[in-house]
Amino acid sequence: MSLQEHFEPRKGNGAAGDVSIPKHTKRRRTRAQAAGLRGAIREILEASHPQTVRQVYYALSVRGLIQKTEIEYKMSVVRLLVQMREKGEIPFDWIADHTRSTYGPTTYSSLAECLKTTSKKYRRRVWDDAQCRIFVFCEKDALAAVLGQETDPYDVPLCVARGYSSISYLHEIAKVIESAGRPAYVYHFGDHDPSGQDAARDTEEKLRRYAPGATIHFERVAVSAKQIEDWNLPGRPTKTKDTRAKKFGRDTSVELDAIPVDKLRALVRSRIKRHVDKKRLKGLRLIEKRERKSLQKMAAAHAEARL
Question: Model-level pTM?
Fold first, then answer.
């Protein structure tokens, strides 16, 4: 089947089994239109990166540059982002994708190399003697790189749930919370749909069950009904096959990726900053700087000893 045939409506007499295609099916763009779309993608990513493919898709649909359909997502956004990265029009690392992992030990050619690498990555723990612990839960693995830009500077664990977390994973985090002996603030980011809302409920319920003696403050930060209204977030039809759809009670669902990246990062940052002692953090950063210099001197000494 040709690409043109794929997008043409199939004719039928309305009997059962006929396939009808919506009128808003994708049409082939002119070269000028395609160039304009590529320019818009580059502009969106230059303003803030990394972003997920889904975030770029929603940003384009809000601008009215593409139709909000899965065909446009796959045949326009995904395809163009592949082409633009392979042709060098945008850097590969402007698109976030943490859905795949490579496993292996971290090794070095020498102690000098290890010390040099460590001096660049060395961090002081921020929350060792703080009054509380902070945990950010994200429903989607692909968004980890986006939210991580806010959690990493403050040494806050980013817990990627992938929808419903396993009991082993939640039990492990609950024990960390319990052993800290301090109140824990858990901020959850997930889709505004039947499963997304229920996954947040399930996470909270299990954390409390597995750490019964801990004080846990749980907040479902996004996506909320107010955010959908205030920011006019694009949605998609709620999946009727989801067993929780009836209880959800809304025809439209909104993905976490639909929140513009600057607003999403601001939500994470604002929750963390509620608990940060700025004076103490500044002191830790100064200590970090001095200790990194010490590691750099050690690395240089070992490198010289090998000559």
Answer: 0.78
Same-domain status, 133 and 270: yes
Tell me how many domains the chain contains: 2
Measured at the alpha carbon of residue 149, what is the angle toward residues 143 and 150, in degrees to the nearest 5? 105
Separation of alpha carbons 120 and 291, rounded Å? 11
Say yes or no: 164 and 247 in one domain.
yes
Res. 9: pLDDT tops 50: no
The region, left, alpha or beta by phi > 0 then psi within -120 to 50, assigned to residue 181 is: left
Whether the pLDDT of residue 62 is over 60: the answer is: yes
What is the token pair recorded at 27? 């049409």
Q: What is the pLDDT of residue 13?
A: 38
pLDDT in tens, 193-234: 999 899 999 999 999 999 999 999 999 999 999 999 999 999
pLDDT at residue 5, rounded to an integer: 37
Q: Is residue 161 in a domain?
A: yes
Same domain, 85 and 146: no
Q: Is residue 122 part of a domain?
A: no
pLDDT in tens, 76-106: 999 999 999 999 999 999 998 766 667 888 8
Residues 256 and 141 in one domain: yes
Domain that holds residue 54: 3-10+20-94
| Ramachandran bin of 296, using left for φ above 0, alpha for ψ from -120 to 50, beta for the remaining angles | alpha
Instruction: Choose among 183, 195, 205, 100: nearest CA to 142.
Output: 100
Q: Is 295 part of any domain?
A: no
Q: Helix and strand tally (H, E) in the chain?
A: 13, 6
